[in-house]
Here is the input.
Amino acid sequence: MKRCGLCLVAACLVAACSSTSNDFAGDPQSEELIQKVDHEDEMDHEGHAHGHSTLREFVGASRPKLNVEVTADPVSGVNVHVTSDLQVEPSAASSEHVDGQGHYHLLVNGVKVLRFYNEWIHYSELAPGDHTVGVELASNDHSIYIWDGKKVSVETFISLKEPKEHHHHSDDFVEFVGASPTLDIEVIEDKKSGWNVYVELVGMLIDPVMGDGNHVDGAGHLHLYLNGEKTARLYGTATHIDSFPNGKVEVMVALYNNLHKPYAVNGETLSATALVVNTG
Here is the structure.
């Protein structure tokens, strides 16, 4: 049965480094190259896996740029920073192909683990040890971009040690200095699989490196919660969630500083909530 989603938008504020770039040569082929790759494994709304993706030639005057920097996060996993020529359009994901538009796929040890839309992403599901972390460019329709017959992708090696920091979230908060930020969220069912969360934030700077791990007034990141349970740390204003549990789901985004303490105004933490009804 096709999933049906009802989105109620709560547009209110409730109170070791490794870097790699691609190196492709050659001119664009005149015909689109159709091949299959095996790591695409998203589920459609009827529960069918898509085990393959089409390869699509990137159209442009020169080879597309893709630079990827992966650093160990002091608390968990890695932070990935991407710069590329891709025009990322989160609202166009799972729609028709447009030359030069799309999103990113995160690859861990050669396997696609998620879709993302932002220049920065945090990925926590990496145990200590040796890993390859990569990024590839994908079109709106989830086909993988290629240039001169090669995928536009970059993989880099990182060796993770046990985190130096162990933190537990508490009720301690940091009073926001200055005018209170405004925060709205919208949750929309993706046309292919999962859900997209869009954040509208004014008045706080999202910057994962500002302050070099120290508190900076007005800077920080977002935490994403599903039914009260934290599921992700966000460094941007759009994210894709693979799946929701059936029934009513409360989606909350909250503002945190770079020390992972919640921001508050007059003692009230800053967050926005949307309710989704997911039936399967």
